[in-house]
Amino acid sequence: MSHYIIRGKWLTGDIAANRDGFFLRTVGDRTMNVTQQTNNAEGVEKGGSEVLKFSFTYSSKWIENWSSSLATTTNIKLTNGVVHILEPAHIFSFGNFYIRAAERQNYWSDYYYYSYGTLYFPNNTNRPWGPQATANMRDGKRLTAISDNQLIMDGADFIGDPVFKIKITMDAKDSVTAIAPATAAADTSLKKSGPSYFDRNKFTLYLQYQYFRTDGMRKVIEEVKLSKN
Question: Whole-angstrom Cα distance, residue 138 to residue 72?
């Protein structure tokens, strides 16, 4: 239900103030895009009722990844907020429930985390990257829960490479207590090398870790941010 509760009091007129709508944060710390639309009526363009289009973004910047539904009954005012009623055809949890019901989840796990970072080499050179660095980075990283406090993720910009898949262990205060190889195929030298933690306000994971090659230690400093669009 946390997908359906948005902080603040948003009427159709408030949403209409921005033609592209607003990216609003749900109480479940996920991003919802809300736009105002006006239906046509009896041949009159935009002469009908006002509706709101709610799009669950799956934390993606790309509209084609979103799941949307219309609220055709709007602006029901209560003492502690406003209710907008979604159309009967709406799929509960914007389809997200059916996709993820069988998956293990924890507080930090999600799709579409965008990665920014730098890989530092022993010869004092480095390689920075961001979400647009390669085609593989465009859709972001997935943080997959394997227990209540552990996740696995592709390390650095090595998307899909099992050698650099890392396991991240969190504590109750959102500190990263360990970074280690996630599978038997991963590099055994992967480990945490500096302060690492999760910021709940920014919904960003800050990581420092390292691994070794024949020419010496290579260090990764990475920010993994759940997109707020």
Answer: 34
